[in-house]
Structure formats: structure tokens, C-alpha cells
């Protein structure tokens, strides 16, 4: 009985110690085990975090119905932190010059991984179940968003077209007004005004007759320079050296070579410093060759060696039973009756050279040739 | 198709091709341009030549124009394809009687590509004879005669 009492009695006021756990939401370590999520502090932190996230999500939801397309501005690179997935999500989707407002966030909210992460987050942090729906976007909503996006793109294009048309109309207006001004200046030429008696209107008239004789297009260019010429001639104080143009030789304006680039003084020999382009390419090839395995077939084959007309590559023939180079030797040394006609006796398949019956004893052709020449000498 | 691949017309040109092709498999197709099986083979070769350009160099040789090589390589059936690497002839065991050359056409482009790759890898390792990766069903069958026996 006493033992039973001991078992029943608990020390009030203290919880059993759980292993240390970190709550990412509160950014704190706690030792209460699963009790932490129900504490007031945690719930408060949770509410604040969700309140921070909610306006962004609501703005994105509004965009489902009426997707807006705007011109790209660097501010559109802004990212939003998704609480449930624990990752940064680009808020607006941009492609080229255009941006879809809230496109990125909507895409993320509609994705299945986000849904899973949200469910997990809600379960672990014991948040209010009704709130969860607000942070999710169903695939149907996403489809609706895409439709409105298409409409949004169309309306954006229309807007752009309108803007361009307006600008064109404005330009036309300005052009019109200028033309009118020119015409109005030309007309009073026929009416001589005795009240204006200085040289200025005379020069105007002279210029006007010039304008009337020439075509109308450069007329608006002629108007400003004429009065300016008058002013320049009266302010003469610079000395005149003479026209610096020699007909044959070019100058800086015609794009001739500058005097310091002309090479006909000392350096007439080898102008180049360093290896030429071909040598550089060859060096690159050699570098590549070094990387190849050294025991590959024909590694020491001299590609550039001169060969006589009788050169044949080393070819291992079908019926031979000796070394590879022997096939070439046999081919070269074949008698006029090659290939042998076996139907009439002669058991041996290979044409044996009576001078050299045991050629296979030599490891390579060089040794065989040496022996042959030695034999020929003796 | 045969006009897409470079042709060699004399012994000297073949010699030069064999000697100058460096660190790449040299493929010499011996045959005649008009022969139907040759046309098939040429089609496969020309379609794969650009993909294999870093591993192989492909040339066409007319058997009538280079009698020396026709005899030397003992070419009795056309088309025959001979493989070289750095001037050294590569033998391939196809499962057929003749290991020195490939007689006939390839069934698919992939067969040819696999074969070139196997030859290249074998050559890099220093092997003078390699095992063909082509399915024996796809290798053309022929009888190798020695002087009408």
C-alpha cells in the first residue's frame, strides 16, 4: 500500500525534463517537449508571423481575378519569405520586359509542395485551422489566374499601342505647327514694311528670297544660321594661317594613319614579337596530345615522316600467322604466281622465301633487315 | 550521300590519309559508289560523320582506282570498311571470319557509332584488336573463300 502511494504522489509545479528542442518560430530553445506549442508565447509569435504574411497573400489572391501586366522595373525583383516552406519566393514573375504582378507568389502558393509544407506547419505549430485555407491557392484558382493573365497581357499590349499612337500624334502635331510657322514667315515677304528700317529685315528678306528659290525642306535649317553669320563676321580677332589641305595626303578627318604608326625608319626587319599564330596553334595541339594516354596505339607514329611510293601500312591480314609487319613483307615479296593455286599440290599456304625461312625469329623489322644485309654482305 | 563524304582516288592520297590522321580513328570505305549496299553504307556514314567528327575521320575509296590496296587488304566483297588509328590497322572481332575489315553495311547508325567508340577506346588503351559491340544478328553474313575452295 505504501508503495502504491509513492507511485501516485507527484511533485506539483514542475514539468518532467524533455530534451532540448529549438522552435524556429520563437527562435528559442525550450525544454517542454510537445507542450511548447500550446504556450501563450508561441501562439503569440505564430499569430504575429501569420499577420505579417497574410497581406502579401491577400494581394496575390486579388490578382487571381485581375492579373496585371506591367513593364519591368528592378523593384520587381523583390522576394517574399514563405513561412511554411521556409524559403524565399520571388513575388513577381518577370520575363524580358514585362512583369506579371504577384505571379511568382501565386505559383508558389498553388504548388503541391507548399500545400504539404503548410499542412505540416499547421499541425506542428497548432495554429487555427480556419486560417490555413487563406494561405493556400487551389489549382482551379491558379487556372483562373492564368486565364486572366492572358487577358491582362492583351490589355497591356493595347495600352502600349495606344501610348505609341499618342506619341505619333504628338510628333505629327509638332511637325504641323513648325510647317505653319515657316509658311507664315514666308508670306509677309510680299508685303514691304517701311517702319522696319534697319539691316536686320533686309537680311531677312535676302535670306527669304534664297529660301523661296530653294526647296522648302531645308528652310527651317536656314532660319537660325543666317542671323548667326552676321554676328560672327563682326567679331574678327584670330589670325588666319591658311588652309591646311594638301590634296594627296589625308588627315585625321579623312581617317589616314597617324605619323607615329608609319613604319619606314628603323624597324624594317621582323616586326612580330613572340610566336606566330601557326606556332601557337601547334603548341595548343601538343598540349592536347600530352593529355592522351601514352600507351595508345601508334603513339610514337611519326606522322610527318616521308614515305616512298612503296609504303604500305601495317595490316594484319586474314590468313597470316606471324607478326603484323610480316604481312607487308610478304605482300611485297610475293612471286608472280601469287596467290598460290592450291588445287595443284603444294601443301604450304604461305609463300616461303627460301632466303629467309625463319623470319619470325626477329622481333621487329629493323633486326630482320640488319640480318638480311649482314647475310648479303657475307 | 557519297558526295557528302571526302573521296580518295589514288594510292598516294590513301597513304596521306593514313599517315596524317592523328589521334582519330580513320575509316576507309572500299567499294563502288553505284553499288546498292555501298549506297546504304554511305548513307549511314554521312549521317554520322558530323557527330563523330572528333573521334573519327571517314573517307571513301573506289576499289577500281586503287588496285594496290584492294589486293593488299584482300577485298573480295564490297563494301568493306577498314579501320586505322595513328597509321596502325585496327582489327575488330565481329563474330565473322574476317577480323581485318567490316564487310557489308551497318544496320543502324547507332551500330556504327558504337563500333567507332569501341575502336577509339581500345586504341587509347593500346589494343590492336577489339571486340565489336554490334549484335551478331546485325552483322552481314558472307562466306570467306580462299581461292575458290
From TrEMBL, chain B:
Q: What is the lineage of its organism?
A: Eukaryota, Metazoa, Chordata, Craniata, Vertebrata
Function (record text): Plays role in pre-mRNA splicing. Essential role in pre-mRNA splicing. Required in cell cycle progression for S/G(2) transition.
Where's it found, cell-wise?
A: Nucleus
Q: Which InterPro entries match?
A: Dim1 (IPR004123), Thioredoxin-like_sf (IPR036249)
Entry's Gene3D superfamilies?
Glutaredoxin (3.40.30.10)
The family annotation for this protein states:
Belongs to the DIM1 family.
Gene name, Swiss-Prot/TrEMBL: TXNL4B
Q: Where is this protein primarily located? A: nucleus
Q: Looking at the Swiss-Prot or TrEMBL record, what is one Pfam family this protein matches?
A: DIM1
Organism (species): Callithrix jacchus
Please state what the protein is called. Answer: Thioredoxin-like protein
Q: Which GO terms describe its cellular component?
A: cytosol; nucleoplasm; spliceosomal complex; U4/U6 x U5 tri-snRNP complex; U5 snRNP
Q: Which SUPFAM superfamilies does this entry report, sorted A to Z? A: Thioredoxin-like (SSF52833)
Gene Ontology process terms (BP): mRNA splicing, via spliceosome
Quaternary structure, per UniProt, is: Homodimer. Interacts with the U5-102 kDa protein subunit of the spliceosome.
Amino acid at each position: 500500500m505504501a508503495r502504491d502511494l509513492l507511485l501516485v504522489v507527484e511533485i506539483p509545479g514542475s514539468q518532467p525534463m524533455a530534451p532540448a528542442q529549438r522552435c524556429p518560430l520563437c527562435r528559442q530553445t525550450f525544454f517542454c517537449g510537445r507542450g511548447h506549442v500550446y504556450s501563450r508565447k508561441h501562439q503569440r509569435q505564430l499569430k504575429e508571423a501569420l499577420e505579417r504574411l497574410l497581406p502579401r497573400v491577400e494581394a496575390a489572391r486579388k490578382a487571381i481575378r485581375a492579373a496585371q501586366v506591367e513593364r519591368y522595373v528592378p523593384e520587381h525583383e523583390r522576394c517574399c519569405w514563405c513561412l511554411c516552406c521556409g524559403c524565399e519566393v520571388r513575388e513577381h514573375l518577370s520575363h524580358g520586359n514585362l512583369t506579371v504582378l504577384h505571379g511568382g507568389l501565386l505559383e508558389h502558393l498553388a504548388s503541391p509542395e507548399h500545400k504539404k509544407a503548410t499542412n505540416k506547419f499547421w499541425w506542428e505549430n497548432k495554429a487555427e485551422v480556419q486560417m490555413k485555407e487563406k494561405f493556400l491557392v487551389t489549382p482551379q484558382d491558379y487556372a483562373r489566374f492564368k486565364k486572366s493573365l492572358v487577358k491582362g497581357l492583351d490589355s497591356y499590349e493595347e495600352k502600349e499601342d495606344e501610348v505609341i499612337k499618342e506619341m505619333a500624334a504628338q510628333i505629327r502635331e509638332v511637325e504641323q505647327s513648325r510647317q505653319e510657322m515657316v509658311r507664315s514667315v514666308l508670306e509677309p515677304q510680299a508685303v514691304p514694311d517701311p517702319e522696319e528700317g534697319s539691316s536686320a529685315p533686309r537680311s531677312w528678306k535676302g535670306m527669304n528670297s534664297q529660301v523661296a528659290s530653294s526647296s522648302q525642306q531645308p528652310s527651317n535649317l536656314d532660319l537660325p544660321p543666317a542671323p548667326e553669320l552676321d554676328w560672327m563676321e563682326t567679331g574678327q580677332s584670330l589670325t588666319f594661317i591658311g588652309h591646311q589641305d594638301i590634296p594627296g595626303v589625308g588627315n585625321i578627318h579623312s581617317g589616314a594613319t597617324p605619323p607615329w604608326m608609319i613604319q619606314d625608319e628603323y624597324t624594317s626587319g621582323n616586326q612580330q614579337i613572340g610566336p606566330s599564330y601557326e606556332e601557337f596553334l601547334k603548341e595548343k595541339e601538343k598540349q592536347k596530345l600530352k593529355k592522351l594516354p601514352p600507351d595508345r596505339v601508334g603513339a610514337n607514329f611519326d606522322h610527318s615522316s616521308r614515305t616512298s611510293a612503296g609504303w604500305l601500312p601495317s595490316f594484319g591480314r586474314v590468313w597470316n600467322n606471324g607478326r603484323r609487319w610480316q604481312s607487308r613483307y610478304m605482300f611485297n615479296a610475293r612471286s608472280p604466281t601469287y596467290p598460290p593455286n592450291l588445287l595443284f599440290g603444294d601443301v604450304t599456304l604461305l609463300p616461303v622465301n627460301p632466303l629467309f625461312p625463319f623470319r619470325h625469329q626477329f622481333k621487329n623489322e629493323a633486326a630482320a633487315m640488319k640480318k638480311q644485309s649482314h647475310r648479303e654482305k657475307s | 550521300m557519297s558526295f557528302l563524304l571526302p573521296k580518295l582516288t589514288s594510292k598516294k592520297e590513301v597513304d596521306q590519309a593514313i599517315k596524317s590522321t592523328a589521334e582519330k580513328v580513320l575509316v576507309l570505305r572500299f567499294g563502288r559508289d553505284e553499288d546498292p549496299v555501298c549506297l546504304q553504307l554511305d548513307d549511314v556514314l554521312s549521317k554520322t560523320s558530323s557527330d563523330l567528327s572528333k573521334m573519327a575521320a571517314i573517307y571513301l575509296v573506289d576499289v577500281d582506282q586503287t588496285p594496290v590496296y584492294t589486293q593488299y587488304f584482300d577485298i573480295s566483297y564490297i563494301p568493306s570498311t577498314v579501320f586505322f588509328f595513328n597509321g596502325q590497322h585496327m582489327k575488330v572481332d565481329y563474330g565473322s571470319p574476317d577480323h581485318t575489315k567490316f564487310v557489308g553495311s551497318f544496320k543502324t547508325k547507332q551500330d556504327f557509332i558504337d563500333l567507332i567508340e569501341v575502336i577509339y577506346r581500345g586504341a587509347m588503351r593500346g589494343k590492336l584488336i577489339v571486340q565489336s559491340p554490334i549484335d551478331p544478328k546485325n552483322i552481314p553474313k558472307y562466306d570467306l573463300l580462299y581461292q575458290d575452295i
